[in-house]
Amino acid sequence: MDIQTLYSGVIIGLLAASPVGAVAILCMQKTIQRGFFHGWFMGVGSAFGDFVYAIIAGFGLTYISNFLIENRLVLGIVGGLLMIYLGLKVFRANPVEQWKQAKSPQSNKKNPFSGFATSFALTVSNPLTIIVFGTLFTASGSVNTPGFADTCVELLGVIIGAILWWTLLVSIVNIFRRKIGPRVLLWINKIMGISIMLFGISVMIMVIFFNDKL
């Protein structure tokens, strides 16, 4: 295994996953409410969504890439509406119930996979991610080494890097989750909820009014 190629993939995965967006906010909120594994699986769902686009960019699957970009208007609207819905749920969440769940030893026993599908859907509904990965692969010089084996190693690095980022983020949030009271949770819900809805609105504005420029 080429360690340098693997390392390049890890860096790409970290860079692609690290920008703070709707999924990151949802992931933090889920960690505060339910604990480490609930937040972590939500992050992993996003990581696998990124991985889908990394495969498309890495192997140069032109037909799929063009299809996603050509239908970015529909995908962007669907993704934006989903963000607005989820943001509204976070905004209206009961901080007292969340605080009780955070303090309860039973909170970690609930199904931690519930957020995986949501974050995966949010990530793959943003076809502009293919442009991000295309840019990152080009910057890393991957386009100059199109070998199948090298591409597979780099893609392995991408998923490792993305999961490392979500593990780090969730671990930091999880350290402080039990120290957060209902009053603080109330403000966290309001700020996070509004932020997620604004992300959703921004995505819709981008694909509706700037679709031809993307």
Short description:
The chain is mainly alpha-helical and 214 residues long.
Task: Sum up the structure in keywords.
single chain, 214 residues, mainly alpha
- Report the helical percentage: over 70%
Largest sheet: none
Radius of gyration: 18 Å
Structural class: mainly alpha
Strand portion: under 5%
Note the overall shape. globular
What does this protein structure show overall?
- By secondary structure, this protein is an all-alpha fold.
- Helices cover 79% and strands 0% of the residues.
- The chain contains ten helices and no strands.
- The mean pLDDT is 81.
Topology:
Elements (H helix, E strand, L loop, with lengths): L2 H15 L4 H13 L1 H23 L3 H9 L1 H20 L3 H9 L10 H11 L4 H12 L7 H29 L5 H28 L5
